[in-house]
Structures are given as structure tokens and as C-alpha cells.
Amino acid sequence: MLDKIQVYDDREEDPDHKLSDMEVGKIINLKMKSKIKKSTMGKIYAGGGTRGRHELGGILSNFRDTLQISLIGLSNNLNKTGFSSNELYTMGGFNRSGGSEVWDGTFGNSYNNGIESVSSAGLNINNNYGERLKLNLSYFYTNTVRDNNANTVGMQTLAKTILHSESTNISRREENKHALNGLIEWVPDTIIRVRYDPHMDFVPQYNTTSSAGNSGNTEGKLTKSFGNTSGKVFNNTFSHNFSYYRRLKRPGDSFTLTHNLSLSENGSDDFNYNNVTSYVSSIKSYIQDRYGENDRANNSGGISETYNRQITKKLNGEFLVNTRYMTATDQGFIYDRSSSGLYDSLSINLSKNLQRNTFIQNLRPLFSYQFSDRFTIRIGLDGELQYVVNKFSNDKSLDMGKRYYKFFPIFRLNARYFSIDYSERLQQPNIDQMVPIERKYSDFYRTIGNPGLVPSKVHSLSVNFSKYDYNHQLNVNFYTGYNLTENNVVQKTTKDGTTGAQTQSYVNEGSGANAYFGGNRVSNLKRPSNGKLV
After folding, report:
1. CA atoms of 77 and 146, how far apart (whole Å)
2. Distances (CA, A) of 377 to 70, 316, 318, 465
3. Could you state, in order of their start, the residue ranges of all structural domains in the chain?
4. Comparing C-alpha atoms, which of 321, 307, 204, 200 is closest to residue 261?
5. Alpha helices (runs of H) in 150-298, residue ranges in sequence order
6. Looking at beta carbons, which pairs linking 280-287 to residues 24 or more positions away fall under 8 Å?
7. 90 and 33 in contact (C-beta within 8 Å)?
8. CB–CB of 345/335 below 8 Å?
9. Dihedral Cα 147, 153, 157, 162, nearest 10 deg
10. What is the CB neighbour count within 10 angstroms for residue 408?
């Protein structure tokens, strides 16, 4: 069936070999025998269990020389994809197309809470026209239903009393995703490589939630509430990435031009009903019946040029110029239900019309020195200009525009089995946290924005280890990281012990840190002559 197996590094996005072997993916090229080049192969499975659990699916791939057409379908309610990543990359053909569908939730397992039921079907088409042109086109439809039941018990000690609360929340989210992806890769000769990959997603979504809860303090009951919400959501996105790579005449020198564009539009129509019974004299019981209409857009585009210079046999220089422009809008209108039964009473205080425009310019010289084939150090300095304009309403007197000039060090060490990375970046606060007004959602809850928030500075350190022992068929991977955030944006909540009412605001306060780690060890089982697995 197989004539030859080739395993090599995937250097399509790293033509100058700046990354170590363990940092790039591996491509397994299965050379079929001539009779198999025109064949069909696949896999089907099905299973069932208690509490209505089920799974079924199949992959069917048809080969005609370099043309591969793969049909893929699955259905399960087990919070899983139904296929291994290896099956999707090889039999499904995603190793030839980039494979974003493997991890973006197209086949389920989007790592959300609750029970996820997914049904997905589509096709993936790959074809090579000689050695110069590669094309891919894929379409998948995915229906995902997520059911989540949550019970929460809380207790908070204040200066003069203790607040306690209980709540129940039952929610369902259903979305129908249409994903259309493509890839064009043209390599006219050994000098030039051109790559273009567009992506389009159309995702209508329907949400329902019902909730109930109560709160109290050491003196007795404070509130009892129940409510429900329903909403219709849309999320449409288009993005593309373009790259042009050219190897220059001088050995080791190259020029790379990249362009990216992302257009995203989403919105919702929501109905919210809340019935709150108050047991304190200072706040009356009330019923809220509201309709919300929200429209959001996030658009960005950028272009970068990279010149790579081989200064000496061991010393390499890289100079990058990167320009990005981003605009984000968030418009929302809240209507209360009037005595006429219509949602026609506009709440000015809760409605919003926000916009943020961001311009970013980067200049980054980077030098790498190769001490040996297995040991390289890269050091650089990233000079960044950010110009951010925040618009909080139609009143231009409230507009805020600020410039930020920063220099961030870059350090990277690549060794035979491990790598160490250090970088820094500037993180802007959310514009919704900066709105210079107080929003009163009810007598029990209000928020206050802080236009004086400043950006946070994030320091990131990561370590990766990977080793494959061919003789023992053993693969070991380990990764860890640490992030330190200066001028951390903190959500500050003040609670009234006598009523349970809370006020939420935002401040820059101190530093925050988080760490993560993980790893795996994979070995193949061997069957010796005695028939026992070891």
C-alpha cells in the first residue's frame, strides 16, 4: 500500500530556518504505490452509552494522484471531537491545508463548561498542480448545543455583617456555524514563495437562560429573585493572510512581505426579565422587563516587511517594520417595557456608543548568533508606538487620544531539546471599563467607569522541552510559563452590608501574576516473543 514514508520539518512559514527543529511541525508524506494513487479509504465508528450518550462519525477520502477529496461527518454529546488530530491531519487532508478546523471548534470540543452536543459535516479538497501550485478549499457546517446547569453558594465577611447568597443558573446555547476556508500557495522557483489563505465564518446563535437566587446577612433575608433571558446572536467574520517571500542574491539574505486583514461583525437582540423581591425598607421590590439591541464590529489590518541579513557564518541580523490599524465599535440600546406593552422606553443611561481607533508602529532589529548546530541565542529590541483614540459618545469633548512610546527587549535561547523565551508587551484596558459615567442597572447593581486607567505592561517568560528517543519509541514534552502584569487593571466591588447592593469600578493596582505548566510522555507498546506487552 505504502511505497515510501517521508518525515520532514514544516518550514513553509519559516523558510530561513530561524526556529529550532522542535518548534516546527512535522509533515508525514505518505508515498502511495501506483495502484493506490487512485483509491478510496476511510473510517467509520459508532457507540452508545447510559444517560443518552452517543457518538458516531466517519471519514471517507478519495485519492486521484495529487487530488484528495475528504468527506467528514460526526455527531456526539461527549465533549469531544470524535477524531484524533492525527486522523484529521492525515486521512482528513488538513496537513495539506493548514488545518485551522482541527482546533477552532468545527469538530467540537471547544473547552466550554457544561454538556456539549455537536454535529458536523463537510468536505476538504486538496490538489497540487505540479510542484509549483497548491490549492485547498473546504466547507463545514457545525451545529453545537451547550447545556450548562450551575449552582453557586457565596459568603462574604464585611466589617459589621456577613453576606451570604445562593443562585441557580440553567442555560442553553445553540449555534449553527458555516465555515469556508481556502489556500493558494505558489512556488514558481527556488527563490519566490507566495501564500494566500482566506477564511469566512457565519455563525447565527440562540441563547436562553433561567435563573433564581436569594441573599441575606446576619440580620435575615435581603432579596429573592428569579428571571429569564433569551437572545438571538449573529457573528460573521472574514480574514485573510498574504505572504510574499523572496530569497536574495547574497547567500542567506531574504525579504518577506506579509499582510493580514480581519473583519468581524457581531450583534444580538436580547429580552431580559427579572423579578426581584426586596426585604429591606430602603429598596423597593421591582420587575424589570427589557429589550437590548447591540451591534459590535472589530476590524484590523496590517502590513510588515522583514529584511534578513546573514552578516557572518554564525551571526544573522533581522530588521522588521510592522504597521497595524484597528478599529472597534460597540453600540447598544436598552429599552424598558412601557405600560403599552411595547419596548419603547429608551434608557439613556444604559445605552452606549463606544469606539476605539488604534494605530501601532513597530521597528524591531533582532540578532541571532549560532554557537553550534544545536545552540542559538537571539537578542533584539522592539520599538513600539501606539496611538489610541477612545470615543465614548457623540460628544467629541469626551474623546481621549494618547500616544505611547515603548521599547521592549526580546530574548530567545534555542538548544537541542529546549528553548527559553522572554518578551514584553503593552496591554490596553477595555474601553468599556473607561466610560466616564455611572450606569445604574438596578437599585442593587451599578458600575462606574474610570477614564484614568493606564495600559498594563506584561512580562512573559516561557520554557519548552521536547525530546524523542527513536530507539525506545519514547516522546517526552514539557512546557511552562510565567506572566507578570504591571499596573494591573483590577475590578473593585463595594457592597452595602445592610442591603446587599454593590457598586463595581476599575482601578490600576499593583501587579498580577499567573503561571502554567503541562507535559506528556508517549511511548509505543512492544509485543515481544512471549506475547506479553511491555
Report:
1. 9
2. 42, 10, 13, 16
3. 1-36, 40-126, 127-523
4. 200
5. none
6. 280/222, 280/498, 280/499, 280/500, 282/498, 282/499, 283/443, 283/444, 283/499, 283/501, 284/443, 286/442, 286/443
7. no
8. yes
9. 130
10. 19
Q: How far apart (Å, rounded) are the C-alpha atoms in residues 203 and 180?
A: 12
Cα(222)–Cα(484) distance, integer angstroms? 40
Q: What is the pLDDT of residues 212-231, one digit of tens each?
A: 999 999 999 999 999 999 99
pLDDT digits (tens, 9 = 90+) for 398-433: 889 999 999 999 999 999 899 999 999 999 999 999
57's enclosing H/E stretch is strand 54-64
CA of 465: how far to CAs of 77, 160, 371, 519, in Å?
35, 52, 19, 9
> How many residues would you count in the chain?
534
CATH topology of domain 127-523: Maltoporin; Chain A (2.40.170)
How confident is the model over 436-454, as a mean pLDDT? 92
Q: Name the DSSP letter for residue 218.
A: T
Instruction: Select the more confidently predicted residue: 247 or 469.
Output: 247
Cβ neighbours of residue 13 closer than 8 Å, sequence gap 6 or more = 243
DSSP state of 486: E
Q: Each residue of 57-115: pLDDT tens digit?
A: 999 988 888 888 999 999 988 887 777 777 887 788 887 776 677 777 677 766 667 78
pLDDT of residue 159: 84
Region of residue 341 (left: phi > 0; alpha: psi -120 to 50; beta: else): left
For residues 182-197, average pLDDT: 94
Cα–Cα distance measured from residue 67 to residue 61, given in angstroms and rounded to the nearest whole number: 10
Q: Distance between CA 433 and CA 488 in Å, rounded? A: 13
Report whether pLDDT(5) > 80.
Answer: no
Task: Quickly state the pLDDT bin for 534 (edges 50, 70, 90).
Answer: very low
DSSP, collapsed to helix, strand or coil, labels residue 90 as helix
End-to-end CA separation in angstroms for the chain? 29
pLDDT at 18 (0 to 100): 60
Nearest Cα neighbor of 413 from 110, 31, 22, 14 is 22
Q: Does residue 533 have a pLDDT over 50?
A: no
**Chain centroid offset of residue 439 CA:** 30
Asked whether the beta carbons of 280 and 291 are under 8 A apart, the reply is: no
Please state, in angstroms and rounded to a whole number, the distance separating the CA atoms of residues 184 and 195: 6
- Cα 433 to Cα 321: distance, rounded to the nearest angstrom: 32
Does an H or E element contain 391, and which?
Answer: strand 375-391
pTM score, two decimals? 0.85
Residue with cell 501506483: 34
Residue 345 DSSP symbol: E
Mean of the pLDDT values across residues 141-162?
A: 91
The amino acid at 51: R
The x, y and z cell numbers of residue 51, run together, are 444517560
Q: What is the mean pLDDT of residues 120-147?
A: 92
